[in-house]
Amino acid sequence: ENLKRAGAGLSIYGGFNLAPVPISIGLQGDLLFYGWGEKYFSYYQNSWRRRDTVSYQNTIIPITAFVQFRPNIAEYFYPYFELLGGINMISASADYKSAGGYNDNQDEFAASWNYGIGAGLMVKLVDFVTLPSFYSRLLLDIKARYMRGTETKYHMVKQINDDTSPDFRRYSSKTDMATFQVGVAFEF
Questions:
Q1: How confident is the model over 168-182, as a mean pLDDT?
Q2: Taking the chain, what is the end-to-end CA distance rounded to the nearest angstrom?
Q3: Sign of the CA dihedral 87, 146, 138, 33?
Q4: Which residues of 30-41 are buried (b: 16+ CB within 10 A; e: fewer)?
Q5: What is the pTM of this model?
Q6: What is the overall mean pLDDT for the chain?
Q7: Which residues contact 113 (CB under 8 A, 6 or more apart)?
Q8: How far is CA 165 from the centre of its chain?
Q9: What is the pLDDT of residue 50?
Q10: Which helix (H) or strand (E) holds 81?
Q11: Per-residue three-class SS string for 21-62
């Protein structure tokens, strides 16, 4: 509710395919950025011009386990449906760097559980065959997920005040998330 509505991030996952049954199990970790910024403050001190910097960043790290049902269609298309669950780790940090050498930082951390569903499509880009028996492939992976998060209390940096102090506000809300991901998968 109080997080920014959109953000960017990175994702990595690994899994095990239970072939010939079209089911895969795995683990995924994400690094999602939801709000960041930097503010500069210029002032004069003893006839010298000084400039202080305050920067902040809000981050969510979901770690989820998943089970996928992924049938093989004509050896090129792999649509899938998945069930997932895990934990959301929420971090808010602010750094103050003074021209006079004084530095300060504040960090806040919270966690909540998540569970959800997802759907996607993998499209085979290329096969790799190494004789006598090693076979792997590179796939384009497009997926959408909805994760319902439990309620948690957390601090977020909402703004930097005119006196250069970060404004941490404490919130309590559910941590629901919808994600859209495009990437490549290497299957072996």
A1: 82
A2: 40
A3: negative
A4: bebebbeeeeeb
A5: 0.74
A6: 84
A7: 85, 86, 87, 88, 149, 150
A8: 27
A9: 78
A10: strand 77-97
A11: CCEEEEEEEEEEEEEEEEEEEEEEECCEEEEEEEEEEEEEEE
